[in-house]
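Whiteboard transcription, Tuesday session. T.W. wrote the structure tokens on the left side:
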């Protein structure tokens, strides 16, 4: 069992309080054309509204592949979990059939990478909220390496597993944008990165990340979602943008982008 590590800090540990918060952020209007997305992973009081705009559009599917950065440095460089995941809203099973179908050329089976990592955990209550009353599964993939080659290999493995299993999936890239900058500067730099994401040109996107020395924590996860979406001829759309300065001090903020990929 993978137990929650940021319940009570990033989001409420009390189920009723958590549901009340999610009810405020998510107004379900699912769009079946959405096959992938980018959602932030900060404390809900900061990024929950932007994440909620994304999850309002995410359709109910069989399996959600959640890809996020490894902030802790623990475990394998690219790691998938097969444990059952627990949140204050209950248990969620990992899709073992999908995991078995991954070629595992670069993705390792490893729980250590996931044990203390928050970037994937904070997405799960949103998924539980939009799938109330129905079963769904997750495939949590944690990236300690995020270069373009790794992103391409991870996206390829996800596509192979999807094609082999025939499952209806949504790929969720968990990432915040720039970190700890004055609000105005954060917004300016984030706009440049967001334009690169919307272009669907992954090499151009990586060049932008490197040229800016961007502090976008899940840049590789975003690239995985872009590559997956591009394979299915999807286009990208920005559905929300905010910074922590909207609810807290504006001198040192983190940016949050909500992006969906539609076919």
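and on the right, the sequence the group agreed on:
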């Amino acid at each position: 069992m993978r137990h929650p590590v940021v319940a009570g800090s990033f989001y409420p540990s009390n189920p009723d309080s958590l549901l009340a918060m999610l009810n405020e952020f998510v107004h379900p209007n699912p769009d079946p054309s959405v096959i992938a997305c980018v959602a932030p992973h900060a404390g809900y009081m900061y990024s929950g509204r932007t994440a909620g705009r994304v999850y309002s559009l995410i359709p109910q599917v069989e399996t959600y592949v959640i890809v996020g950065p490894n902030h802790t440095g623990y475990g394998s460089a690219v790691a998938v979990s097969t444990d059952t995941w627990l949140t204050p809203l209950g248990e969620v099973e990992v899709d073992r059939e999908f995991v078995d179908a991954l070629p595992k050329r670069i993705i390792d089976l490893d729980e250590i990478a996931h044990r203390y990592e928050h970037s994937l955990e904070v997405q799960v209550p949103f998924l539980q909220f939009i799938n109330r009353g129905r079963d769904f599964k997750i495939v949590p993939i944690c990236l300690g390496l995020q270069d373009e080659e790794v992103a391409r290999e991870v996206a390829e493995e996800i596509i192979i597993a999807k094609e082999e299993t025939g499952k209806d999936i949504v790929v969720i890239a968990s990432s915040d944008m720039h970190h700890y900058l004055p609000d105005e500067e954060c917004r300016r730099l984030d706009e440049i990165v967001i334009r690169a994401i919307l272009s669907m040109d992954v090499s151009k996107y990586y060049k932008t990340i490197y040229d800016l020395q961007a502090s976008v924590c899940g840049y590789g996860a975003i690239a995985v979602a872009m590559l997956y979406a591009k394979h299915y001829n999807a286009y990208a759309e920005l559905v929300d943008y905010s910074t922590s300065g909207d609810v807290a001090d504006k001198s040192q903020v983190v940016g949050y982008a909500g992006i969906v990929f539609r076919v």
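Someone added at the bottom: The first helix runs from residue 15 to 25.
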